[in-house]
UniProtKB/TrEMBL annotation:
Its main location: membrane. This is Protein PsiE. Keywords: Cell membrane, Membrane, Transmembrane, Transmembrane helix. PANTHER family: PROTEIN PSIE. It is a multi-pass membrane protein. Belongs to the PsiE family. Pfam families: PsiE.
């Protein structure tokens, strides 16, 4: 593969990447609008609804971080997973077996440690 072909392929992939990121943002905003409409119809807000909004917010944040600093974007899926697991525990906590709640809490702890380590490594690599 020569240099011009490589440059053309990378340019094409960057265009596809930006189109898909735009679609992700549109879909996320659509999800937010649908959820807000559902909340308006139900005339009630609970903790699970708030956590769902945080999931949407984190997806938008992940796209924003992707454009500002690509190295930090890798931590955002971990934050999304933590929030999703917390939401799952809240939604199904009463009906779940206690050991499953414990397993999910341990998963949140492991993800939190991973996010901390990745953030520290990103800071160290920026300093160097």
């Amino acid at each position: 593969m020569d240099a011009s072909e490589k440059k053309w392929a990378l340019g094409l992939f960057q265009i596809i990447e930006r189109i898909l990121l735009f679609i992700v943002v549109l879909m996320t905003l659509g999800g937010v609008a649908f959820e807000l409409h559902s909340l308006y119809i139900a005339q009630s807000i609970n903790l699970a609804d708030i956590l769902l909004m945080f999931l949407y917010l984190e997806v938008i944040g992940m796209v924003a971080v992707f454009y500002s600093d690509r190295r930090s974007a890798s931590v955002f899926p971990i934050f999304i997973a933590i929030t999703a697991l917390a939401r799952l525990i809240i939604l199904q906590g009463k009906d779940m077996a206690p050991e499953n709640i414990l397993f999910e809490a341990i998963a949140i702890l492991i993800l939190s440690i991973a996010a901390f380590v990745m953030t520290r490594l990103n800071q160290l690599s920026k300093d160097n």
